[in-house]
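Section 3.1 - Work completed
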Amino acid sequence: MGKALYDVPAPAKLNLFLHLVGRRLDGYHKLETVFRFIDLQDTLNFERRNDGQIVRAQETLSGLAAEDDLMVRAARLLQHATGTSYGVELDCVKRIPAGGGLGGGSSDAASTLIALNKLWETGLSRAQLMRLAVQLGADVPVFVFGQNAFATGIGEQLRAVSLPPAWYTVVQPNAFVSTAEIFADKGLTRNSKSVIITFFDGWRAASHKKSEKETSSLLFGRNDMEPIACKNHVALDAVIRILRNNNLHVRMTGSGSCVFVEYSNYATASSQNRRISGKLLNLTHDRQLLVKGQWLSQGLDYHPLYSWLK
Protein backbone atom coordinates (compact mmCIF):
# COMPACT_ATOMS: atom_id res chain seq x y z
CA MET A 1 0.00 0.00 0.00
CA GLY A 2 1.06 3.59 -0.68
CA LYS A 3 -0.58 6.93 -0.04
CA ALA A 4 -4.24 7.30 0.91
CA LEU A 5 -7.14 9.75 0.90
CA TYR A 6 -9.83 9.30 3.52
CA ASP A 7 -13.26 10.85 4.10
CA VAL A 8 -13.54 12.21 0.56
CA PRO A 9 -17.02 13.79 0.13
CA ALA A 10 -19.45 12.96 -2.68
CA PRO A 11 -22.47 15.29 -2.37
CA ALA A 12 -26.00 14.72 -3.62
CA LYS A 13 -27.70 16.95 -6.18
CA LEU A 14 -31.20 18.23 -6.78
CA ASN A 15 -32.77 19.08 -10.12
CA LEU A 16 -34.52 22.39 -9.35
CA PHE A 17 -36.48 21.84 -12.56
CA LEU A 18 -36.19 19.26 -15.33
CA HIS A 19 -37.62 19.90 -18.78
CA LEU A 20 -37.43 17.44 -21.67
CA VAL A 21 -37.13 19.48 -24.86
CA GLY A 22 -36.59 16.79 -27.50
CA ARG A 23 -34.94 13.54 -28.42
CA ARG A 24 -31.72 12.90 -30.33
CA LEU A 25 -31.37 10.45 -33.19
CA ASP A 26 -29.36 8.14 -30.90
CA GLY A 27 -32.31 7.90 -28.51
CA TYR A 28 -30.92 10.11 -25.74
CA HIS A 29 -33.30 12.76 -24.43
CA LYS A 30 -32.40 16.43 -24.70
CA LEU A 31 -33.09 18.21 -21.44
CA GLU A 32 -32.77 21.47 -19.59
CA THR A 33 -32.24 21.53 -15.85
CA VAL A 34 -30.52 23.32 -13.01
CA PHE A 35 -28.36 21.16 -10.77
CA ARG A 36 -27.91 22.19 -7.14
CA PHE A 37 -25.48 20.45 -4.79
CA ILE A 38 -26.63 19.76 -1.22
CA ASP A 39 -24.73 18.71 1.89
CA LEU A 40 -26.19 15.20 2.04
CA GLN A 41 -23.17 13.17 0.98
CA ASP A 42 -21.46 9.81 0.73
CA THR A 43 -17.93 9.46 2.15
CA LEU A 44 -15.24 7.70 0.12
CA ASN A 45 -11.86 6.24 1.10
CA PHE A 46 -8.94 5.47 -1.23
CA GLU A 47 -5.71 3.57 -0.51
CA ARG A 48 -3.20 3.60 -3.35
CA ARG A 49 -1.84 0.25 -4.49
CA ASN A 50 1.41 -0.30 -6.35
CA ASP A 51 0.27 -3.48 -8.12
CA GLY A 52 -2.24 -1.85 -10.48
CA GLN A 53 -5.21 -3.73 -8.98
CA ILE A 54 -8.55 -1.99 -8.38
CA VAL A 55 -10.29 -3.69 -5.47
CA ARG A 56 -13.11 -2.89 -3.09
CA ALA A 57 -12.69 -2.96 0.66
CA GLN A 58 -16.15 -4.51 0.82
CA GLU A 59 -17.04 -6.97 -1.92
CA THR A 60 -20.69 -5.89 -1.75
CA LEU A 61 -19.87 -2.18 -1.90
CA SER A 62 -23.06 -0.24 -2.69
CA GLY A 63 -24.86 -3.57 -3.17
CA LEU A 64 -23.47 -3.82 -6.71
CA ALA A 65 -21.29 -6.24 -8.61
CA ALA A 66 -17.86 -4.74 -9.32
CA GLU A 67 -18.56 -4.34 -13.04
CA ASP A 68 -21.67 -2.29 -12.24
CA ASP A 69 -20.06 -0.15 -9.54
CA LEU A 70 -19.47 3.37 -10.86
CA MET A 71 -16.52 3.89 -8.51
CA VAL A 72 -14.76 0.86 -9.97
CA ARG A 73 -15.65 1.89 -13.51
CA ALA A 74 -14.36 5.42 -12.87
CA ALA A 75 -11.07 4.10 -11.49
CA ARG A 76 -10.61 1.77 -14.47
CA LEU A 77 -11.44 4.56 -16.91
CA LEU A 78 -8.88 6.94 -15.40
CA GLN A 79 -6.31 4.16 -15.24
CA HIS A 80 -6.81 3.33 -18.91
CA ALA A 81 -6.83 6.98 -20.02
CA THR A 82 -3.60 7.88 -18.26
CA GLY A 83 -1.65 4.62 -18.36
CA THR A 84 -0.82 4.86 -14.67
CA SER A 85 0.66 1.77 -13.04
CA TYR A 86 -1.09 2.48 -9.74
CA GLY A 87 -4.17 0.71 -8.44
CA VAL A 88 -6.47 1.46 -5.51
CA GLU A 89 -8.53 -0.05 -2.73
CA LEU A 90 -11.94 1.65 -2.65
CA ASP A 91 -14.40 2.04 0.18
CA CYS A 92 -17.69 3.93 0.39
CA VAL A 93 -19.93 4.92 3.29
CA LYS A 94 -23.33 5.37 1.64
CA ARG A 95 -25.74 8.02 2.89
CA ILE A 96 -27.35 9.07 -0.38
CA PRO A 97 -30.16 6.60 -1.12
CA ALA A 98 -29.75 4.63 -4.34
CA GLY A 99 -32.33 5.16 -7.06
CA GLY A 100 -33.64 8.38 -5.53
CA GLY A 101 -32.79 10.88 -8.26
CA LEU A 102 -30.12 12.45 -6.03
CA GLY A 103 -27.17 11.41 -8.20
CA GLY A 104 -25.42 9.31 -5.55
CA GLY A 105 -23.75 6.88 -7.94
CA SER A 106 -22.77 9.66 -10.34
CA SER A 107 -21.35 11.72 -7.49
CA ASP A 108 -19.33 8.75 -6.20
CA ALA A 109 -17.92 8.27 -9.70
CA ALA A 110 -16.96 11.94 -10.03
CA SER A 111 -15.31 12.08 -6.60
CA THR A 112 -13.42 8.91 -7.53
CA LEU A 113 -12.08 10.56 -10.69
CA ILE A 114 -11.10 13.70 -8.80
CA ALA A 115 -9.53 11.87 -5.84
CA LEU A 116 -7.58 9.35 -7.93
CA ASN A 117 -6.34 12.11 -10.22
CA LYS A 118 -4.76 13.52 -7.07
CA LEU A 119 -3.73 10.23 -5.44
CA TRP A 120 -2.25 8.77 -8.64
CA GLU A 121 -0.69 12.13 -9.59
CA THR A 122 -2.09 11.85 -13.10
CA GLY A 123 -2.45 15.63 -13.43
CA LEU A 124 -5.55 15.86 -15.62
CA SER A 125 -7.39 19.18 -15.79
CA ARG A 126 -11.05 19.71 -14.92
CA ALA A 127 -11.93 19.79 -18.64
CA GLN A 128 -10.08 16.53 -19.27
CA LEU A 129 -11.80 14.78 -16.36
CA MET A 130 -15.20 16.05 -17.56
CA ARG A 131 -14.59 14.42 -20.94
CA LEU A 132 -13.96 11.15 -19.13
CA ALA A 133 -16.91 11.68 -16.80
CA VAL A 134 -19.52 11.79 -19.57
CA GLN A 135 -18.52 8.24 -20.52
CA LEU A 136 -19.79 7.12 -17.11
CA GLY A 137 -23.19 8.82 -17.30
CA ALA A 138 -24.92 12.09 -18.14
CA ASP A 139 -25.01 13.28 -14.51
CA VAL A 140 -21.33 12.65 -13.76
CA PRO A 141 -19.82 15.72 -15.52
CA VAL A 142 -21.62 18.27 -13.33
CA PHE A 143 -19.96 16.88 -10.20
CA VAL A 144 -16.56 17.29 -11.84
CA PHE A 145 -17.59 20.76 -13.07
CA GLY A 146 -18.02 21.57 -9.40
CA GLN A 147 -20.50 24.43 -9.55
CA ASN A 148 -24.28 24.63 -9.50
CA ALA A 149 -25.14 24.63 -13.17
CA PHE A 150 -27.71 25.17 -15.89
CA ALA A 151 -27.44 22.04 -18.04
CA THR A 152 -28.51 21.35 -21.61
CA GLY A 153 -27.86 18.59 -24.13
CA ILE A 154 -28.14 15.27 -22.30
CA GLY A 155 -26.99 17.10 -19.18
CA GLU A 156 -23.32 17.47 -20.07
CA GLN A 157 -23.39 21.03 -21.48
CA LEU A 158 -22.96 23.14 -18.38
CA ARG A 159 -23.01 26.80 -17.44
CA ALA A 160 -22.40 27.93 -13.86
CA VAL A 161 -25.31 29.61 -12.10
CA SER A 162 -25.32 31.61 -8.89
CA LEU A 163 -28.08 30.46 -6.53
CA PRO A 164 -29.22 32.15 -3.31
CA PRO A 165 -28.85 30.42 0.07
CA ALA A 166 -31.46 27.71 0.53
CA TRP A 167 -32.31 24.73 2.69
CA TYR A 168 -34.24 21.66 1.62
CA THR A 169 -36.41 18.98 3.11
CA VAL A 170 -35.66 15.90 1.04
CA VAL A 171 -38.12 13.00 1.33
CA GLN A 172 -37.59 9.48 -0.02
CA PRO A 173 -40.97 7.81 -0.66
CA ASN A 174 -41.20 4.05 -0.38
CA ALA A 175 -40.97 3.57 -4.14
CA PHE A 176 -38.28 2.58 -6.63
CA VAL A 177 -38.68 4.46 -9.90
CA SER A 178 -37.01 3.05 -13.00
CA THR A 179 -35.70 5.76 -15.33
CA ALA A 180 -36.04 3.38 -18.27
CA GLU A 181 -39.67 2.78 -17.35
CA ILE A 182 -40.42 6.50 -17.42
CA PHE A 183 -38.66 7.08 -20.74
CA ALA A 184 -40.56 4.17 -22.27
CA ASP A 185 -43.96 5.52 -21.19
CA LYS A 186 -45.97 6.81 -24.16
CA GLY A 187 -47.44 9.55 -21.98
CA LEU A 188 -44.07 11.23 -21.40
CA THR A 189 -43.91 14.68 -22.98
CA ARG A 190 -40.67 15.68 -24.71
CA ASN A 191 -41.68 19.03 -26.15
CA SER A 192 -41.20 21.54 -23.33
CA LYS A 193 -40.31 25.00 -24.54
CA SER A 194 -36.61 25.81 -24.18
CA VAL A 195 -35.65 28.11 -21.31
CA ILE A 196 -33.24 31.00 -21.79
CA ILE A 197 -30.79 31.00 -18.88
CA THR A 198 -31.14 34.74 -18.38
CA PHE A 199 -34.88 34.23 -17.89
CA PHE A 200 -34.21 31.69 -15.15
CA ASP A 201 -31.65 34.02 -13.52
CA GLY A 202 -34.15 36.88 -13.52
CA TRP A 203 -36.91 34.70 -12.14
CA ARG A 204 -34.74 33.46 -9.27
CA ALA A 205 -33.66 36.99 -8.35
CA ALA A 206 -37.26 38.20 -8.28
CA SER A 207 -38.61 35.21 -6.36
CA HIS A 208 -36.10 35.58 -3.53
CA LYS A 209 -37.03 39.20 -2.90
CA LYS A 210 -40.23 37.84 -1.37
CA SER A 211 -40.64 37.72 2.38
CA GLU A 212 -38.57 35.04 4.10
CA LYS A 213 -41.65 34.33 6.19
CA GLU A 214 -42.99 32.20 3.36
CA THR A 215 -42.70 28.47 4.01
CA SER A 216 -40.95 27.86 0.69
CA SER A 217 -40.08 29.58 -2.52
CA LEU A 218 -42.19 28.97 -5.58
CA LEU A 219 -40.30 26.58 -7.78
CA PHE A 220 -39.41 27.46 -11.35
CA GLY A 221 -40.78 25.31 -14.16
CA ARG A 222 -41.57 21.66 -13.47
CA ASN A 223 -40.20 18.14 -13.66
CA ASP A 224 -41.56 16.57 -16.84
CA MET A 225 -40.97 13.07 -15.45
CA GLU A 226 -43.00 13.64 -12.29
CA PRO A 227 -46.53 12.92 -13.66
CA ILE A 228 -45.44 9.60 -15.15
CA ALA A 229 -43.62 8.55 -11.97
CA CYS A 230 -46.63 9.47 -9.85
CA LYS A 231 -48.98 7.57 -12.14
CA ASN A 232 -46.93 4.40 -11.71
CA HIS A 233 -46.02 4.65 -8.02
CA VAL A 234 -48.72 5.10 -5.38
CA ALA A 235 -46.38 5.98 -2.51
CA LEU A 236 -44.67 8.75 -4.47
CA ASP A 237 -48.01 10.19 -5.60
CA ALA A 238 -49.36 10.06 -2.03
CA VAL A 239 -46.35 11.88 -0.55
CA ILE A 240 -46.55 14.66 -3.13
CA ARG A 241 -50.31 15.06 -2.66
CA ILE A 242 -50.02 15.23 1.14
CA LEU A 243 -47.32 17.91 0.99
CA ARG A 244 -49.20 19.97 -1.59
CA ASN A 245 -52.38 19.72 0.45
CA ASN A 246 -50.37 21.32 3.26
CA ASN A 247 -49.51 24.30 1.01
CA LEU A 248 -45.94 23.20 0.38
CA HIS A 249 -44.32 23.57 -3.03
CA VAL A 250 -42.88 20.11 -3.57
CA ARG A 251 -41.00 18.73 -6.56
CA MET A 252 -39.49 15.42 -7.59
CA THR A 253 -35.76 15.42 -8.39
CA GLY A 254 -34.36 13.59 -11.41
CA SER A 255 -36.43 10.58 -12.35
CA GLY A 256 -37.39 10.09 -8.68
CA SER A 257 -38.32 8.88 -6.29
CA CYS A 258 -37.03 11.58 -3.91
CA VAL A 259 -38.90 14.86 -3.64
CA PHE A 260 -37.92 18.15 -2.03
CA VAL A 261 -39.27 21.39 -0.58
CA GLU A 262 -37.09 24.51 -0.70
CA TYR A 263 -36.82 27.21 1.98
CA SER A 264 -34.99 30.52 2.02
CA ASN A 265 -33.87 30.40 5.67
CA TYR A 266 -32.83 27.79 8.22
CA ALA A 267 -35.40 28.63 10.90
CA THR A 268 -38.33 28.04 8.55
CA ALA A 269 -36.65 24.97 7.10
CA SER A 270 -36.15 23.39 10.51
CA SER A 271 -39.71 24.10 11.59
CA GLN A 272 -41.26 22.84 8.37
CA ASN A 273 -39.04 19.77 8.32
CA ARG A 274 -40.46 18.75 11.69
CA ARG A 275 -43.97 19.46 10.44
CA ILE A 276 -43.43 17.30 7.34
CA SER A 277 -42.05 14.48 9.47
CA GLY A 278 -45.15 14.63 11.62
CA LYS A 279 -47.41 14.42 8.58
CA LEU A 280 -45.63 11.52 6.90
CA LEU A 281 -43.74 9.50 9.52
CA ASN A 282 -46.31 6.84 10.38
CA LEU A 283 -48.50 6.80 7.27
CA THR A 284 -48.80 3.48 5.46
CA HIS A 285 -50.15 2.09 2.21
CA ASP A 286 -50.80 -1.64 1.85
CA ARG A 287 -49.18 -2.06 5.30
CA GLN A 288 -45.94 -0.42 4.16
CA LEU A 289 -44.68 2.95 5.33
CA LEU A 290 -45.01 5.69 2.71
CA VAL A 291 -41.59 7.17 3.53
CA LYS A 292 -38.21 5.44 3.70
CA GLY A 293 -36.10 8.49 4.62
CA GLN A 294 -36.10 12.24 5.23
CA TRP A 295 -33.26 14.77 5.46
CA LEU A 296 -32.85 18.48 6.12
CA SER A 297 -30.04 19.63 3.83
CA GLN A 298 -28.34 22.90 3.02
CA GLY A 299 -27.70 23.99 -0.55
CA LEU A 300 -24.03 24.33 -1.48
CA ASP A 301 -22.41 26.95 -3.71
CA TYR A 302 -19.58 24.65 -4.81
CA HIS A 303 -18.69 20.98 -4.80
CA PRO A 304 -16.51 20.28 -1.71
CA LEU A 305 -13.66 19.14 -4.02
CA TYR A 306 -13.86 22.14 -6.36
CA SER A 307 -10.41 23.42 -5.37
CA TRP A 308 -8.79 20.07 -6.22
CA LEU A 309 -8.92 20.81 -9.95
CA LYS A 310 -7.92 23.58 -12.32
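Second construct:
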Amino acid sequence: MDIRTGLPPRRALLTAGLAVAVAAGALSGCSAAGAPKATPAAPEPRPATPEAAFARLMAGNGRWVSGDLEHPDRDPQRRELVAQAQHPFGVVLSCIDSRVSPELIFDTGLGDLYVLRTGGQAIGPVVTGSVEYGPMTGGTPLVVVLGHQRCGAIEAAYKSLRDGEPLPGNLQAIVKALEPAYELTVKNPGPDPVDTMIHHQIKVTADDLRANDDLGPLVKKGSLGVVGAYYSLDTGKVAVLTGAPA
Protein backbone atom coordinates (compact mmCIF):
# COMPACT_ATOMS: atom_id res chain seq x y z
CA MET A 1 0.00 0.00 0.00
CA ASP A 2 1.34 3.41 -0.92
CA ILE A 3 1.11 5.43 2.32
CA ARG A 4 0.76 8.68 0.42
CA THR A 5 -2.08 7.68 -1.93
CA GLY A 6 -3.71 4.76 -0.13
CA LEU A 7 -3.39 2.67 -3.39
CA PRO A 8 -1.45 -0.59 -4.03
CA PRO A 9 2.07 -0.16 -5.50
CA ARG A 10 2.19 -0.03 -9.36
CA ARG A 11 4.32 -3.22 -9.52
CA ALA A 12 1.69 -5.13 -7.57
CA LEU A 13 -1.04 -3.95 -9.95
CA LEU A 14 0.98 -5.04 -12.98
CA THR A 15 1.68 -8.42 -11.46
CA ALA A 16 -1.96 -9.00 -10.61
CA GLY A 17 -3.05 -7.93 -14.10
CA LEU A 18 -0.57 -10.30 -15.70
CA ALA A 19 -1.82 -13.17 -13.58
CA VAL A 20 -5.41 -12.49 -14.65
CA ALA A 21 -4.39 -12.32 -18.30
CA VAL A 22 -2.49 -15.61 -18.10
CA ALA A 23 -5.43 -17.29 -16.41
CA ALA A 24 -7.85 -15.97 -19.00
CA GLY A 25 -5.57 -17.14 -21.79
CA ALA A 26 -5.34 -20.57 -20.25
CA LEU A 27 -9.11 -20.83 -20.00
CA SER A 28 -9.50 -19.56 -23.53
CA GLY A 29 -7.05 -22.12 -24.81
CA CYS A 30 -8.91 -24.92 -23.06
CA SER A 31 -12.26 -23.90 -24.48
CA ALA A 32 -11.13 -23.20 -28.05
CA ALA A 33 -7.75 -24.37 -29.30
CA GLY A 34 -7.26 -27.08 -26.71
CA ALA A 35 -10.75 -28.54 -26.86
CA PRO A 36 -11.36 -31.48 -29.22
CA LYS A 37 -13.40 -30.64 -32.31
CA ALA A 38 -16.97 -31.84 -32.35
CA THR A 39 -17.39 -34.97 -34.44
CA PRO A 40 -19.96 -34.47 -37.22
CA ALA A 41 -23.07 -36.55 -36.76
CA ALA A 42 -23.10 -39.71 -38.83
CA PRO A 43 -25.34 -39.37 -41.89
CA GLU A 44 -28.71 -41.01 -41.67
CA PRO A 45 -28.69 -44.32 -43.58
CA ARG A 46 -30.23 -44.22 -47.03
CA PRO A 47 -33.75 -45.66 -47.05
CA ALA A 48 -33.60 -49.05 -48.71
CA THR A 49 -37.29 -49.59 -49.49
CA PRO A 50 -39.98 -47.56 -51.26
CA GLU A 51 -41.88 -47.30 -48.00
CA ALA A 52 -38.91 -45.92 -46.06
CA ALA A 53 -37.96 -43.49 -48.84
CA PHE A 54 -41.53 -42.25 -49.11
CA ALA A 55 -41.75 -41.79 -45.33
CA ARG A 56 -38.48 -39.79 -45.36
CA LEU A 57 -39.77 -37.47 -48.08
CA MET A 58 -43.15 -36.90 -46.47
CA ALA A 59 -41.55 -36.21 -43.09
CA GLY A 60 -39.41 -33.58 -44.79
CA ASN A 61 -42.46 -32.05 -46.43
CA GLY A 62 -44.11 -31.89 -43.03
CA ARG A 63 -41.18 -29.84 -41.76
CA TRP A 64 -41.45 -27.57 -44.83
CA VAL A 65 -45.11 -26.92 -44.09
CA SER A 66 -44.54 -26.23 -40.39
CA GLY A 67 -41.33 -24.27 -40.84
CA ASP A 68 -39.46 -26.60 -38.47
CA LEU A 69 -36.71 -27.26 -41.02
CA GLU A 70 -33.61 -29.34 -40.42
CA HIS A 71 -31.66 -28.42 -43.61
CA PRO A 72 -29.91 -31.81 -43.53
CA ASP A 73 -26.85 -32.79 -45.55
CA ARG A 74 -25.87 -29.23 -46.49
CA ASP A 75 -22.36 -28.75 -45.14
CA PRO A 76 -18.72 -29.32 -46.18
CA GLN A 77 -18.66 -32.72 -44.49
CA ARG A 78 -21.60 -33.87 -46.63
CA ARG A 79 -19.96 -32.47 -49.75
CA GLU A 80 -16.80 -34.45 -49.00
CA LEU A 81 -18.81 -37.59 -48.23
CA VAL A 82 -20.60 -37.66 -51.59
CA ALA A 83 -17.76 -36.27 -53.71
CA GLN A 84 -16.64 -39.70 -54.92
CA ALA A 85 -19.97 -41.52 -55.12
CA GLN A 86 -23.69 -40.83 -54.75
CA HIS A 87 -26.56 -42.96 -53.51
CA PRO A 88 -29.77 -40.87 -53.68
CA PHE A 89 -32.85 -42.45 -52.14
CA GLY A 90 -35.36 -40.81 -54.49
CA VAL A 91 -35.98 -39.49 -57.99
CA VAL A 92 -38.27 -36.47 -58.35
CA LEU A 93 -39.67 -35.39 -61.70
CA SER A 94 -41.14 -31.94 -61.18
CA CYS A 95 -41.97 -28.79 -63.10
CA ILE A 96 -39.54 -26.02 -64.03
CA ASP A 97 -41.61 -23.59 -61.97
CA SER A 98 -39.35 -21.43 -59.80
CA ARG A 99 -41.60 -21.96 -56.78
CA VAL A 100 -41.31 -25.74 -56.85
CA SER A 101 -37.86 -26.84 -55.70
CA PRO A 102 -37.92 -30.50 -54.56
CA GLU A 103 -34.86 -30.20 -52.34
CA LEU A 104 -36.61 -27.45 -50.35
CA ILE A 105 -40.13 -28.89 -50.45
CA PHE A 106 -38.88 -32.17 -48.96
CA ASP A 107 -36.20 -30.60 -46.71
CA THR A 108 -33.43 -32.76 -48.18
CA GLY A 109 -29.81 -32.05 -48.97
CA LEU A 110 -26.82 -32.78 -51.14
CA GLY A 111 -26.80 -36.29 -52.57
CA ASP A 112 -30.32 -37.18 -51.38
CA LEU A 113 -32.32 -36.84 -54.62
CA TYR A 114 -32.05 -37.11 -58.36
CA VAL A 115 -34.10 -34.14 -59.60
CA LEU A 116 -35.46 -33.62 -63.10
CA ARG A 117 -37.54 -30.58 -64.03
CA THR A 118 -39.50 -30.10 -67.24
CA GLY A 119 -42.45 -27.91 -68.18
CA GLY A 120 -45.56 -29.59 -66.80
CA GLN A 121 -43.56 -32.76 -66.05
CA ALA A 122 -43.54 -33.43 -69.80
CA ILE A 123 -41.63 -36.59 -70.64
CA GLY A 124 -39.91 -38.07 -73.67
CA PRO A 125 -37.16 -40.67 -74.20
CA VAL A 126 -34.36 -38.58 -72.68
CA VAL A 127 -36.41 -37.62 -69.62
CA THR A 128 -37.68 -41.17 -69.13
CA GLY A 129 -34.15 -42.51 -69.40
CA SER A 130 -33.00 -39.99 -66.82
CA VAL A 131 -35.76 -41.09 -64.45
CA GLU A 132 -34.72 -44.72 -64.97
CA TYR A 133 -31.05 -44.02 -64.23
CA GLY A 134 -31.26 -44.16 -60.42
CA PRO A 135 -33.52 -47.21 -60.05
CA MET A 136 -31.76 -49.19 -62.77
CA THR A 137 -28.13 -48.42 -61.95
CA GLY A 138 -28.13 -47.69 -58.23
CA GLY A 139 -31.24 -49.26 -56.76
CA THR A 140 -32.94 -45.94 -55.96
CA PRO A 141 -36.22 -47.15 -54.41
CA LEU A 142 -38.61 -44.27 -55.14
CA VAL A 143 -39.76 -42.10 -58.04
CA VAL A 144 -42.08 -39.14 -57.44
CA VAL A 145 -43.89 -37.29 -60.23
CA LEU A 146 -44.57 -33.91 -58.62
CA GLY A 147 -47.09 -31.60 -60.25
CA HIS A 148 -48.26 -28.39 -58.68
CA GLN A 149 -51.02 -25.84 -58.27
CA ARG A 150 -51.31 -23.06 -60.90
CA CYS A 151 -48.92 -24.69 -63.37
CA GLY A 152 -48.24 -22.15 -66.11
CA ALA A 153 -46.97 -24.75 -68.58
CA ILE A 154 -50.14 -26.80 -68.31
CA GLU A 155 -52.34 -23.71 -68.49
CA ALA A 156 -50.58 -22.63 -71.70
CA ALA A 157 -50.90 -26.12 -73.17
CA TYR A 158 -54.57 -26.32 -72.23
CA LYS A 159 -55.37 -23.02 -73.94
CA SER A 160 -53.31 -23.93 -77.00
CA LEU A 161 -55.11 -27.23 -77.47
CA ARG A 162 -58.52 -25.78 -76.68
CA ASP A 163 -58.13 -22.88 -79.12
CA GLY A 164 -56.16 -24.75 -81.79
CA GLU A 165 -53.32 -22.23 -81.64
CA PRO A 166 -49.83 -23.79 -81.52
CA LEU A 167 -47.25 -22.26 -79.22
CA PRO A 168 -44.06 -20.82 -80.74
CA GLY A 169 -40.82 -22.74 -81.16
CA ASN A 170 -40.13 -25.80 -79.09
CA LEU A 171 -42.86 -24.87 -76.62
CA GLN A 172 -45.13 -26.80 -78.94
CA ALA A 173 -43.24 -29.97 -78.02
CA ILE A 174 -44.49 -29.51 -74.44
CA VAL A 175 -48.04 -29.08 -75.72
CA LYS A 176 -47.70 -32.31 -77.70
CA ALA A 177 -46.45 -34.21 -74.66
CA LEU A 178 -49.42 -32.99 -72.58
CA GLU A 179 -52.10 -34.00 -75.08
CA PRO A 180 -53.11 -37.23 -73.24
CA ALA A 181 -53.86 -35.24 -70.08
CA TYR A 182 -55.79 -32.68 -72.10
CA GLU A 183 -57.94 -35.37 -73.74
CA LEU A 184 -58.87 -36.75 -70.33
CA THR A 185 -59.72 -33.24 -69.15
CA VAL A 186 -62.07 -32.59 -72.08
CA LYS A 187 -64.15 -35.58 -71.03
CA ASN A 188 -64.63 -34.27 -67.51
CA PRO A 189 -63.20 -30.74 -67.05
CA GLY A 190 -64.54 -30.10 -63.56
CA PRO A 191 -64.90 -26.59 -62.10
CA ASP A 192 -61.28 -25.68 -62.94
CA PRO A 193 -60.16 -27.37 -66.17
CA VAL A 194 -56.53 -26.32 -65.81
CA ASP A 195 -56.25 -27.81 -62.33
CA THR A 196 -58.06 -30.90 -63.56
CA MET A 197 -55.50 -31.22 -66.33
CA ILE A 198 -52.67 -30.82 -63.81
CA HIS A 199 -54.04 -33.76 -61.84
CA HIS A 200 -54.45 -35.84 -64.99
CA GLN A 201 -50.91 -35.08 -66.12
CA ILE A 202 -49.49 -36.25 -62.78
CA LYS A 203 -51.44 -39.51 -62.91
CA VAL A 204 -50.77 -40.21 -66.60
CA THR A 205 -47.04 -39.66 -66.18
CA ALA A 206 -46.77 -41.72 -63.01
CA ASP A 207 -48.82 -44.54 -64.54
CA ASP A 208 -46.67 -44.57 -67.67
CA LEU A 209 -43.45 -44.75 -65.66
CA ARG A 210 -44.84 -47.38 -63.33
CA ALA A 211 -45.79 -49.65 -66.22
CA ASN A 212 -42.90 -49.15 -68.65
CA ASP A 213 -40.74 -52.06 -69.72
CA ASP A 214 -37.78 -51.15 -67.52
CA LEU A 215 -39.34 -49.79 -64.32
CA GLY A 216 -42.41 -52.04 -64.34
CA PRO A 217 -40.54 -55.20 -63.26
CA LEU A 218 -38.94 -53.33 -60.35
CA VAL A 219 -42.37 -52.08 -59.23
CA LYS A 220 -43.82 -55.61 -59.43
CA LYS A 221 -40.89 -56.95 -57.43
CA GLY A 222 -41.53 -54.35 -54.73
CA SER A 223 -38.10 -52.72 -54.93
CA LEU A 224 -39.43 -49.52 -56.51
CA GLY A 225 -42.37 -47.23 -55.84
CA VAL A 226 -43.66 -44.67 -58.35
CA VAL A 227 -45.78 -41.97 -56.73
CA GLY A 228 -47.86 -39.23 -58.33
CA ALA A 229 -48.16 -36.18 -56.07
CA TYR A 230 -49.60 -32.65 -56.14
CA TYR A 231 -47.90 -29.67 -54.48
CA SER A 232 -49.96 -26.79 -53.14
CA LEU A 233 -48.30 -23.42 -53.62
CA ASP A 234 -50.65 -21.97 -51.00
CA THR A 235 -49.89 -24.38 -48.17
CA GLY A 236 -46.60 -26.02 -49.13
CA LYS A 237 -48.17 -29.44 -48.64
CA VAL A 238 -47.62 -32.41 -50.94
CA ALA A 239 -50.72 -34.56 -51.45
CA VAL A 240 -50.35 -38.06 -52.88
CA LEU A 241 -52.63 -38.85 -55.82
CA THR A 242 -51.47 -42.30 -56.83
CA GLY A 243 -48.98 -45.03 -56.04
CA ALA A 244 -48.24 -44.38 -52.36
CA PRO A 245 -46.17 -47.34 -51.02
CA ALA A 246 -48.16 -49.48 -48.62
